[in-house]
Model the fold of this input.
Amino acid sequence: MLKIEGLNQYYGQSHTLWDVDLHIPEGQCTVLMGRNGVGKTTLLQCIMGHQAVKSGSMMLDGADLLKASVEQRPRVGIGYVPQGRQIFPLLSVEENLQVGLPVRARNDRKIPEYIFELFPVLAEMMHRRGGDLSGGQQQQLAIGRALVVNPKLLILDEPTEGIQPNVVTEIGDIIRKLNREMGLTVLLVEQKLPFARKVGDRFCILDRGRHVAEGEMEALDDKLVAQYLTV
Amino acid sequence: EETIKVGILHSLSGTMAISETTLKDTMLMLIDEQNAKGGLLGKKLEAVVVDPASNWPLFAEKARELVSKEKVDAVFGCWTSVSRKSVLPVFEETNSLLFYPVQYEGEESSKNVFYTGAAPNQQAVPAVDYLMDQGVERWVLAGTDYVYPRTTNKILEAYLKAKGVAAEDIMVNYTPFGHSDWQSIVSDIKKFGSTGKKTAVVSTINGDANVPFYKELGSQGVAASDIPVVAFSVGEEELSGIDTGPLVGHLAAWNYFMSVDSEANDEFIDSWQTYIKNEDRVTNDPMEAHYLGFKMWVEAVKKSGTTEPAIVQDSIIGVSVPNLTGGYATMMPNHHITKPVLIGEIQDDGQFEVVWNTAGTVAGDAWSDFLEGSKDLISDWRAPLSCGNYNVKTAKCSGQNF
Amino acid sequence: MSKAFDNKSRGLDLLVETSHPRTSEILQLLSDSQLYYHKKDKRLFIITHYVTGKVAKDLQGNEQVIKKKRDFKKVTLNNKMRGQINRIQAELGLNADNPQQREAAVRDLLKDITPGTVATLKTRFLIEESKNVREMINIALAINDLKSSDDVLLSNAIEQLDGSLEQESRSALVAFVSTAQSPLLKKQAQIALKGIEDKVQYYGWLETLYFGLSLGSVLVLAGIGLAITFGVMGVINMAHGELIMIGAYTTYVIQLLMPDHIEWSILVAIPAAFVVSGLVGIAIERGVIRFLYGRPLETLLATFGISLILQQAVRSLFSPLNRSVETPDWMSGLIQINPVFSLTLSRLYIILFCLVVFVALLLVLKKTALGLQVRAVSQNRAMARSMGIRSNRVDALTFGLGSGVAGIAGVALSQLTNVGPNMGQAYIIDSFMVVVFGGVGNLWGTLVAGLSLGVANKVLEPWAGAVLAKVLMLIFIILFIQKRPRGLFPQRGRAAEG
Amino acid sequence: MGVLNIVKNDRGGQIMLGVLLVITILVPLLNLFVPETNPLHVPTYTVTLMGKYLTLALLAVAVDLVWGYLGILTLGHGAFFALGGYAMGMYLMRQIGDRGVYGNPELPDFMVFLDWQELPWFWQGFDQFWFAAIMIMLVPGVLAFIFGWLAFRSRVSGVYLSIITQAMTYALMLAFYRNEMGFGGNNGLTDFKDLVGFSLQEDTTRIGLFVLSAVALAVGYLICRHLMNSRLGRVCIAVRDAESRARFMGYRVENVKLWIFVISAMLAGVAGALYVPQVGIINPNEFSPINSIEIVVWVAVGGRATLYGAVIGALLINYAKTYFTAELPDVWLFALGGIFVLVTLLLPKGVTGFVAGLKQHKEVSA
Amino acid sequence: MSIISAFEQAVDRNHVYPFLVPKQAPKLDVSHNVLLYLEDITVSFDGFKAINNLNLYINDGELRCIIGPNGAGKTTMMDIITGKTQPDSGSAWFGQTINLLEMDEPAIAQAGIGRKFQKPTIFEELTVWENLELAMADDRNVWSILNARINSEQSSMLLETIELIGLQANTKMLAGKLSHGQKQWLEIGMLLMQKPRLLLVDEPVAGMTHQEMDRTAELLSSLAGRHSVVVVEHDMDFVRNLAGKDRTVTVLHQGSVLSEGSMNKVQQDPKVVEVYLGE
Ligand SMILES: Nc1ncnc2c1ncn2[C@@H]1O[C@H](COP(=O)(O)OP(=O)(O)OP(=O)(O)O)[C@@H](O)[C@H]1O
Ligand SMILES: Nc1ncnc2c1ncn2[C@@H]1O[C@H](COP(=O)(O)OP(=O)(O)OP(=O)(O)O)[C@@H](O)[C@H]1O
Ligand SMILES: NC(N)=O
Ligand SMILES: [Mg+2]
Ligand SMILES: [Mg+2]
Done:
């Protein structure tokens, strides 16, 4: 579905991503892994258009994503749950969700019910300001908000960070459900191995800005872990 | 080719641009005309325009620039008293000439400044005389809180009391620059004026504050026949920015009105409207003052055959030129000039109709006879006295640097 | 000069004495300054528009074309004569058909009650049908009766004047108290006077409140556009005042374009000013501000530059002089509630207008998709874009909205104050003060802040004077912000801190 | 040497101070010893003008200290400048003595003609230079202290702080416009004659003031640089970027802010005091909020949080003003406004940031 | 106070006004071996009780793990201890003598309570080195920080810490440019530099790899004893690792303590399983 080739990115003078290739097959859940600071978030930001790309190509379902502006990317079907959640702090929970409505089809501009089934806490906190929620609640809101745009590809940057264990399990279940039952393609950045193993179909490892390994989740062995994921 | 440089020091931006820009244009016109007549002493006049931007320190800087850098022979400029005070030391230090065209509070006479606007005795006092004559018994002295209104009102208060007006029949009110909400004050004036005694407002309200003031008078229904307002800072130019419909009958005291019927005036208006390429442009009193100041300077230069300020300073005293109202203006030894005093009523076309005028001209008085500190002072720049503030009691010329 | 006026004045008296049927018509013409005389033959003419080419009618209705500007001369009046005419008209008005006119006529006569007027009033009273007019005549007669020495008559007169708010009643009572012989009557008059004073004081407070609300509305109107560009979008918009100014100039231009429909020009000017200022705002946003998001302090610098440019542009385009904007008739005048309390119409409209603008804006921000998008963008631009919000469009529209509202404020201000190149500067400081005092980003805050500052200012003004009142208000704001460091209606909770 | 140590790592400062030193030595020489006919002659007019610019540059440095390093966008620093100016003005007024137009040895002219009978208490002492010199620093310092003590303790910050600083200067402006305040109202204080015995009309006095301004700027700059080199400077930046974090680390943020604010106000006061004798007038307009906003604009044009950027910005804009108001009197606001807009768009870090960027670029490509 | 006595006081040059007396926290006294007392604390936001009658005691030198569902009030509890939030009722004492509720944030920090935030907060415009320098325990009044110089002892401490947090390569880098995980480490480093008596650590390992988590656990364990440490974390592996067998774990739920005891005990508590652990 998403095909990235030869991607290079710079922060000012410093070269952060080096010739990154990344293939996200349709309908699968790909987990992007790597140590702190290797450029995972940066890569996602390139996909979302928040970081300028120096060279390389990026195709979504055959269409050139690099030509799309930031605000078009959700329209072509990308939902984004950023690292650090990025909730609109002064909007209520409901309004946070409503923000994505204009992306939806004209006759279907309301928040889908299933979001509240996935995250009952959101229904409970409907009128509280997003910024007042606890970290975990915000994370759920961020996922819910990304679902409002009806994405084909859901991108999550460390969504379990700061979430209570049973909710982590739940989020895992939900990601799987979205992926397996609703057919959403998922790109997940995750540091926690057990979680990654549980939800991911495939893995993909970055190291110091380079793409160094990928494969089916089963192929992620101790050697790779030791080489790229431990300090 | 050598020219005679004339400096023009009027704000073209900032709060005072509204009044002063016209004076810059007037000066340019006068200089053009003079050049068309062949210039002066066989040389062309050259105007040097700078913009002191309604900023008082900048006035001093620009004045120095004109005198020291541009080497102009005379400067025509300033509107507010503070700008004049700011440049005064520069002109005194460099011993050069400034022509100041605006009515002011008096209490000044500099060797280097020629005051072609009215002193209080040429505007305020006659206006009050007129109103008294019309039966006014209660007085509101309303002004912007700065030196000109304060001094003028001080003089008027002393004058009114001397004429037997009781203290409770005088209401004094000051407002900040650019005051825009006049509701309470107009309402107070209304109340003050509703006791049965004939009441009038003497307004020294300055500049931008006038429009909202008159609008408020209009909307609270204060008609000129009930409580007339006589203003010293509202002329044709100011009226051109106000809907005059509700103001008909309110008064102003000046030494010139555009509506005055005289040949010289017709000619002046014609050349102004031609120069500025706008048939609707009005003329006003400070313009006449510049007109007079410029003519006097030209005469004085011709008389002495040089533009040297030190010499022109002496030769200009006593110079007499026709004014625009059909009389003559003479430069007095105290550097003020003689002027007729006119009272006009606002008409709905934004003009003033003269309803009263002095029989002849009045000489400007640098030092008011109604102020404790200055009633003993006189000014005479002719030798041997050569002093702007000579105390007749102590027979001393208070220490000035020259 | 004044001699001439004295003669004219005597002429008027003569005219009245002849009780010519056209007396009142001529008086009206005089006070409307439509009466002219031909310079040569001294005949009187009626001229409605003194323009060469139009016709002048003489009193017999013969027409004559105006050929030269100086052929005719207006019959001028001075204030004394205007007073005289008013008075004569009042006496004539006593027999007018309209009861309000008759009441006004009696009220005019109160100023100077002579035996002659007493007689006229007494005759009128017999045939008068309107209750109000009879009441007014009674007051006039009572004032007259206070001069008598008959105790019963006096007591009745005092009773009649009790509660009357006419200034003349009060003066008459005050005069009576100071000279009264009978202690009993004196007491009675004092009580009546006290009652009147209390009432006057009460209305005085109402008046202060009204003045305060109207000043407050001006502050709110001036500030509310800024509450959007600055409060919501975070642009320190120093050009806000100039956007107000552009709205005011738009009003002026509209009036120039429709000189025969001044009445309606204001209604046309409101949308026009919104559009013009809005477009200028959009141009500023697209041209400059959009490069500065995330650098709020730099918007200060750039918009300060823009404000200088706009000021000078207006100076170059329209001249540095103030422009005259007329007030349509339906907006001028006042509603006289009673002799000591009246509402000026223009202010009343402005209060209402302010509320309408406020409610409209509130609805836009709270109830529309645009409103939600605006808030989302202002809180987290990058994330909003990732949710599909076209932030460019939203920014331009929002800035345009705020600017347009500033333009509307300009229309309102053109009715109250100068329309000139400096007018923007006069409002920018106050606008920021109001928005910040209310709490940045909160429209309600702006409303409450503006109105309460207006009222407080008007309460302070009588005893502190206009200058000190303003100084005290500023000190109050400084101290208030110590108590509530985020304004009247602060953003609360965790969100505001982070 | 201490001074060199302070600017050890400060290229911009070194250059700026170097140029300042050269000018300070050269200009008086060119004024006094080069004949007027020589093109190299620097007229007194120019010397005074430069002296004025230098005082404004010192003011800009004071603003940069609190805005650039502490993040306090002050829109009221003109007030401290004006207060310093008034303190100097009062001294200069008292120096006039009986040489005023009314010849009153005690009262300034404006008091005489408004019929004041005696000198108000707050004018006492200003006939002594040492007293005035103390007041020049003390008055702005105390006002800044009271204001800052209230505001910082209540944690007023951001635009709220900016607006109340603006309210402060606005209130002072209105108050000083009142004639009853006893500071000459709108006309302010003028007609100064001499300063510690030197006539203000003498060229040598003007040169002295110019040199003094240059020295004040240099000393002010070094003080600020020294402060910012210290750990205190880093705490300032920490406070600017994450105030509450600094608090949780145990720093008394309000004290840090307060002292920097007070120091900055005192520098502004000194700048004002040197400004007044050179321009010859002090009037309430100096308190006007627009003036204070302009100062911030100078700093932004020069480049924030560099100190020397403030100097460059102040000199550049004020020179541009002098130049434009003479050369383009009718349209100069277009030019000045245009500069502000363009600088913001094209040089987001101000002139110094641009130059630094150029250099970096060169280094990288080299 | 009568006017006369007020006047006398005003002229008495030895009189010291209370507001002039520098607020000096009393000396820390842990004679009862308890470092932190939170008793009956309640906080509500717009009617919502975030903390409800909370009682919590931390012993001197203890390492305490606190877990609990999202929104249980863990962060709010830290806000109260560090002076950011004032509780509606209850008391908070640091040792026997220091009343935390009467002190503001800097005073509390100077008394010896350090904190790491849930969302990493560092000074983005300062370098890593400078961040750590500012955090370093030292005199904090304005005059001292103006004259502060880093001595060799402090310098080596800085270097040690930088090595410990693995940012040697980034010493001169502006902290704003670090990645999320690096910022976490930097903030831990800053906490260490502060040498607090009590460390409050809110979700230190969010965004770290497993191995880094182990290192962090090791680090925090090594601090216990000399310092008291309160750790809030959702990662159960990390908590298990940290708590070992005998350290106390507290479970917060809806603003009060749901369960307390050893990890084993807590893990088996059905209430905890239901609201928090799941499965
Ligand atoms: N705005 C920026 N400017 C300069 N460098 C940056 C910026 N943002 C990130 N970096 C650097 O780019 C590198 C990659 O950062 P990125 O945030 O993509 O890492 P990450 O893999 O997501 O790490 P983590 O797991 O800690 O979130 C890091 O070394 C970081 O220091
Ligand atoms: N300022 C506030 N205004 C309103 N509600 C608040 C505020 N601060 C916290 N809350 C609410 O209080 C509750 C407790 O929040 P807190 O952040 O302490 O939870 P937490 O235990 O730290 O959760 P997490 O593990 O997700 O970080 C939450 O429901 C939150 O929404
Ligand atoms: N002189 C005046 N009007 O300021
Ligand atoms: Mg990341
Ligand atoms: Mg938390």
